[in-house]
Design a protein that fits this description.
- By secondary structure, the protein is an all-alpha fold.
- The protein contains nine helices and no strands.
- Helices cover about 80% and strands about 0% of the residues.
């Protein structure tokens, strides 16, 4: 079986484009009820998938571009949310991809997927909170860093569970049947 890191650049570009398209389209599934969208975080899934399947660089690019492009195309998320999200999702793609590659050498595929996901989720949320605080501070708005952290960790618990349930099996299937297939 061909290692996913040996996938062709064209294949990685194609999958990255698919993940970017998913990041643009998935929020429409929850768009009618913004609270559900905020709770499930549908744009996070493609960023994680891209990092895990295509590698940290592609994951970072797709993660960074998706909220900004979605803002430009659909005015959602609002720019004050899109900027911190761009940093957060870039970190998700980069950290998940990098750690998955590193951990895969040390432990099995599934444990390395979960470890990479959980660590990337934590680091990405911290980055989001810090960027959000900087953006709010630069705009002259009052904010509480503690409240920002609470919102990022407690307000998205359903999305975290959803991501932990669906992303590892999707990566395993993609690697086994799609990515590793010889062209």
């Amino acid at each position: 079986m061909k290692d996913k890191t040996q996938s062709s650049p064209l294949r990685k570009l194609t999958f990255s484009a698919m993940f970017l398209a998913l990041a643009l389209v998935l929020p429409f599934l929850t768009g009618q009820i913004p609270q559900v969208g905020a709770l499930l975080s549908p744009m996070h899934i493609p960023a994680f998938l891209c990092g895990l399947v295509c590698g940290p660089v592609w994951g970072a690019v797709v993660g960074c571009v998706s909220p900004l492009l979605r803002f430009l195309l659909f005015s959602m998320p609002p720019i004050m949310a899109a900027i911190p999200m761009a940093f957060e999702l870039a970190v998700y793609g980069a950290v998940a991809g990098l750690l998955y590659k590193l951990f895969s050498r040390l432990m099995g595929k599934v444990p390395s997927l979960y470890a990479a996901l959980v660590i990337a989720m934590l680091v990405g949320r911290v980055v989001n909170a810090l960027v959000k605080a900087a953006v709010l501070g630069l705009s002259g708005s009052e904010f509480s860093l503690v409240l920002i952290f609470l919102e990022l960790f407690t307000g998205t618990w359903a999305g975290i569970l959803l991501q932990l349930v669906i992303i590892p099996p999707l990566v395993v299937v993609l690697e086994k049947f799609v990515i590793a297939r010889k062209s």
